[in-house]
Structure to design on (204 residues):
């Protein structure tokens, strides 16, 4: 290989490296959902947190994540559709929102499984307690909205034991058993916009 060929090859590799660099994305809370479900008696209660923010690095072409990722959730924004129940969940029996106003997830470790699916081991912090949690993560694709914003989508699912994070309140039933289950199913439905430029105005 002559000098010119080596120079062209080096330039091409350098360009490919630049193009493959993960871009930063901001979570779009108007088109995302931070949800959960937990057993209550014989059925399940579904809920969500409405106030949160997050960002991460991702390369849609190479399907690779960068080193940075974070999600911060305001615990006082919990919503199960019943005001009295939400007030109880905000109390010291559960999230104790006055003392612990936020819960969070960090980048952790993301390992590709197959296709668009990944294993995500993240550090989850609730009530000041941080523990690793494993989630199943799926990349749902990329698109450009009518206003020119580059968007990508993910869904993550997992399960935690609430008592591991200090949410221990329960009530024993007369017939035996407990009113509230220990296992909490987590569902993150995330749409995010590339941070390359200031976001354009979009309809909700």
């Amino acid at each position: 290989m002559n000098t010119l060929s080596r120079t062209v090859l080096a330039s091409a590799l350098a360009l490919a490296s630049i193009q493959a660099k993960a871009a930063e994305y901001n979570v779009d809370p108007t088109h995302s959902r931070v949800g959960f479900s937990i057993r209550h008696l014989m059925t399940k209660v579904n809920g969500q947190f409405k106030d949160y923010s997050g960002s991460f690095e991702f390369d849609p072409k190479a399907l690779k994540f960068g080193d940075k990722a974070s999600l911060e959730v305001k615990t006082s924004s919990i919503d199960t559709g019943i005001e009295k129940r939400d007030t109880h969940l905000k109390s010291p029996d559960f999230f104790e929102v006055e003392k612990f106003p936020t819960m969070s997830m960090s980048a952790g470790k993301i390992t590709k499984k197959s296709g668009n699916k990944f294993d995500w081991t993240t550090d989850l912090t609730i009530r000041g307690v941080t523990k690793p949690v494993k989630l199943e993560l799926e990349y749902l694709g990329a698109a450009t909205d009518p206003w020119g914003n580059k968007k990508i989508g993910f869904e993550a699912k997992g399960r935690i034991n609430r008592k591991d994070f200090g949410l221990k309140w329960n009530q024993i039933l007369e017939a035996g058993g407990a009113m509230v289950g220990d296992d909490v199913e987590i569902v993150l439905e995330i749409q995010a916009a590339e941070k390359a430029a200031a976001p354009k105005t979009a309809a909700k």
Observations:
- The helical segments are 3-19, 83-90.
- The longest helix spans residues 3-19.
- Confidence is low (pLDDT under 50) at residues 7-19.
- The chain has one domain: 21-194.
